[in-house]
Amino acid sequence: MLYCSWRILYRKGVYRRFSKCDWDESYEANKTHANTQRRLGELLRADVWGAIRVADTSINRQCANTKKLGLSLYTACFMEKLQEPNYKDPALDK
C-alpha cells in the first residue's frame, strides 16, 4: 500500500512539474528527432544500395572482359596451330 501511494505521489509530482506546453514541446522535439534519424537511415540505405549496384556492375564488366580475353587467347592459339605446316583439324576428319 505504501508503494502504491508513493507511485501516485511521484506521478502527480512529475505531471505537476511540467506544463502542457512543456509536454507538447518535448513531443515535437522527439518526433522531429525520430523523423530526422529515419530520413538519415533511408539516405544511408540508398547510398549503400547504390554502392552495391556499382560494385556488381564492375564485377560483371570484369567477368565479361575476362571471358573476352579468354576467347581471344583461345582464338590466337587456334590460329597459331592452323599456321603449323603439319596441323590436321580433328573436326575435318569426321
Describe the structure.
- With 94 residues, the protein is mainly alpha-helical.
- It has a domain at 29-85.
- Helices cover 89% and strands 0% of the residues.
- The protein has three helices and no strands.
- The chain has helices spanning 2-17, 20-83, 90-93.
- The protein is rod-shaped and about 105 Å long.
- The chain starts with a helix and ends with a helix.
- The mean pLDDT is 77.
Q: Got a strand count?
A: 0
Percent of residues in helices comes to over 70%
Our count of helices gives 3
**Straight-line distance between termini:** 102 Å
Mean pLDDT: 77
Per-chain topology:
Blueprint: H1 2-17, H2 20-83, H3 90-93
Briefly, what is this?
This protein is mainly α and 94 residues long.
Question: Which terms summarize this structure?
Answer:
94 residues, mainly alpha, rod-shaped
